[in-house]
Specification:
Blueprint lengths: L1 H9 L2 H9 L4 H9 L1 E3 L27 H10 L5 E6 L2 H6 L23 E2 L4 H6 L2 H15 L3 E6 L1 H6 L3 H15 L6 E5 L9 H15 L13 E7 L5 H12 L2 E7 L4 H5 L6 E4 L2 H15 L3 E3 L5 H15 L2 H29 L3 E6 L3 H11 L3 E7 L4 H5 L11 H4 L15 H12 L19 E3 L4 H11 L3 E4 L1 H9 L4 E3 L11 H16 L10 H4 L11
Parallel strand pairs: 2-3, 2-4, 4-5, 6-7, 6-8, 8-9, 10-11, 10-13, 11-12, 13-14
Antiparallel strand pairs: 1-12
Helix pairs in contact: 2-20, 4-10, 7-9, 10-13, 11-22, 14-15, 14-22, 15-22
The chain binds FE-MO-S cluster.
Length: about 550
């Protein structure tokens, strides 16, 4: 441990950056340097970070693909849409429940297709002669077997390369099946989310948002019964998080019209526009839907965060404040008061063991920020954090959006033109928003991760394996959070590793109950002696070395 503090003290963030990039060829080093920034601990002086750009070929990135962002992330947690992967079988199989998104149908007989993996299983023949007929067949087969309310088609790389038109197939099959069965309406729509679209999962989120907005939201005007109606956007019920949030909202008397898309039903998506407020958990994956709903229906949005006890309380209060009803505010306070004793008791027992420990968090586009709150509640410091695929606004805050340069890769992803709905645009909500804004209530804002991090800590975009290894060598953090691809390499370095994508086999971590779960899990990990016995193979045997041939 002595070497650890010595190293931390002796290296400035600039020196760490130099260490991380020193093995790269000059051009690569120049690009990566812009993706590694020292935080200033203050909003106004937050530096610009390069993000949402292509990963340099050959670098072992932590990223996934556009198909993963569309099918795996945004639509994957939907239980009553038959989600068909049009492509070779691997894409469907590896995006099937590996994210641990959970669902709870209202009755055991209710539709739930999440336990199935639907794929057209394209083979060489389909690649050469086209896969559209096979796709039509798959849609018909799924329809005959399940009679679902909706079928969605997800394009994998070869679909785009050979030019199968999934949208034409969707239109045709929707028309045919609805003609054949006039008593059962089925919605069919496709996504051009080929893996290579854009530079990461982020492109897939945007594609998913566009199609859900175009084909689903607003299909039915039948409102949900209840008071204080909100949607929860960007909560995918990993490890049961949404169950905790649903329970909190219900006890407060807040009506959840829909969640996009954890523990969700397509019927609720269809009437999401009947809510009075959109709340956003994961800004990166779904801000597009919130923005488009505000333009079309006049529903304002606010950023919330149910990771961390303090943030959960703050989010509940903010929702209550929007509705401005004393009865609701009192109930929210009562629920917070019911929850806090367990949180405080857990902290009193674990904090003496976690205080002063250090963490690093490298996750997709939102958790690397949100989970810092849980660590700080435990008295732990986040030394470095980063997103795999988020944009500058997720790092620096939405205030920088006007200065973000749109490159060819982003231009590839369609921006929908949305206008106010002539009959359904809610002018009252617009007026309510203006009145609250005048009182200092913040809408449509996300301050980003960097301004909230301590001075001298690092924000690193699209971290890769080489840099992760270096960071561990330089800082020896007490815990490193990332995903399954990183897990075992990190553990071999003798550092405990927690998956913040799938939560390993743990969770829920949202809300107050989730916070208690998380404190206990992290206490167990950072205080286990087992890690100090781990010797990486390269510590015991000489490392293989080679010379690079780019000079
Ligand atoms: Fe949003 Fe997510 Fe995340 Fe994300 Fe993801 Fe995820 Fe994630 Mo894995 S939607 S950006 S694309 S919070 S699957 S539930 S954990 S990378 S930080």
């Amino acid at each position: 441990m002595a070497t650890k503090s010595k190293k931390q003290k002796s290296l400035t963030p600039d020196e760490v950056r130099q260490e991380l990039i020193k093995k790269y060829p000059p051009k690569v080093a120049r690009k990566r340097a812009k993706q590694i920034q020292a935080n200033t601990g203050d909003e106004a002086s937050t530096p610009e970070i390069l993000s949402n750009v292509r990963t340099i070929p050959g670098i072992m990135t932590m990223r996934g693909c556009s198909y993963a962002g569309c099918k795996g992330v945004v639509l994957g947690p939907t239980r009553d849409i038959v989600n068909i992967t049009h492509g070779p079988i691997g894409c469907g199989f590896y995006s099937w429940l590996t994210r641990r998104n959970q669902t709870e149908p209202p009755t055991p007989e209710s539709e739930n297709y999440m336990t199935y993996c639907f794929s057209t299983d394209m083979n060489e023949n389909d690649i050469v002669f086209g896969g559209e007929n096979k796709l039509k067949q798959a849609i018909r087969e799924a329809y005959d077997l399940f009679k679902p309310r909706a079928i969605a088609i997800f394009s994998t790389c070869p679909v785009g390369l050979i030019g199968d038109d999934v949208h034409a197939v969707a239109r045709e099959m929707k028309e045919t099946l609805n003609k054949e069965n006039p008593d059962h309406f089925i919605n069919i729509f496709g996504f051009s989310c080929e893996g290579y679209k854009g530079v990461s999962q982020s492109a897939g989120h945007h594609i998913a948002n566009n199609q859900i907005f175009t084909h689903v939201i607003g299909l039915t005007d039948k409102p949900k019964e209840g008071k204080y109606k909100i949607n929860m956007l960007g909560e995918y019920n990993i490890g049961g998080d949404a169950f905790v949030i649903d329970d909190l909202l219900e006890r407060c008397g807040i009506t959840l019209v829909s969640t996009f898309s954890g523990n969700s039903s397509i019927h609720d998506f269809e009437r999401a526009h009947t809510a009075d407020l959109n709340t956003i958990m994961c800004h990166r994956s779904i801000n597009y839907v919130a923005e488009m709903m505000e333009i079309k229906y006049g529903i304002p949005w606010i950023k919330v965060n149910f990771i961390g006890a303090k943030e959960s309380a703050k989010s509940l209060r903010k929702i209550a404040q929007y509705f401005g009803d004393k009865e609701l505010m009192d109930r929210v306070e009562q629920v917070i008061a019911e929850e806090m004793p367990a949180v405080e008791a857990a902290l009193a027992s674990i904090k003496p063991r976690t205080e002063g420990k250090t963490a690093m968090l490298f996750v997709g586009g939102s958790r690397a920020h949100h989970y810092q709150d849980l660590f700080s509640e435990m008295g732990m410091k986040t030394l470095a954090a980063g997103y795999e695929f988020a944009h500058r606004d997720d790092y620096e805050g939405r205030r920088v959006i006007p200065s973000i340069q749109v490159d060819a890769d982003s231009r590839n992803i369609e921006e929908l033109e949305v206008c106010p709905d002539p009959t359904r645009y809610d002018k009252e909500l617009e007026a309510k928003k203006k009145a609250l804004e005048a009182q200092g209530y913040e809408f449509s804002d996300y301050k980003g991760m960097m301004p909230e991090m301590e001075q001298g800590t690092l924000s690193i975009d699209d971290l890769n394996q080489h840099e992760a290894d270096k960071l561990i060598e330089l800082y020896k953090p007490d815990i490193f959070c990332a995903g399954i691809k990183e897990k075992f390499g990190i553990q071999k370095c003798g550092v405990p590793m927690k998956q913040l994508h799938s939560y390993d086999s743990g969770g829920p971590y949202a809300g107050f109950k989730g916070a208690v779960n998380f404190y206990k899990e992290i206490d167990r990990l950072v205080n286990s002696k087992v890690w100090s016995f781990v010797k990486a193979p390269w510590n015991k045997n000489p490392e293989l070395t080679a010379t690079y041939n780019w000079e």
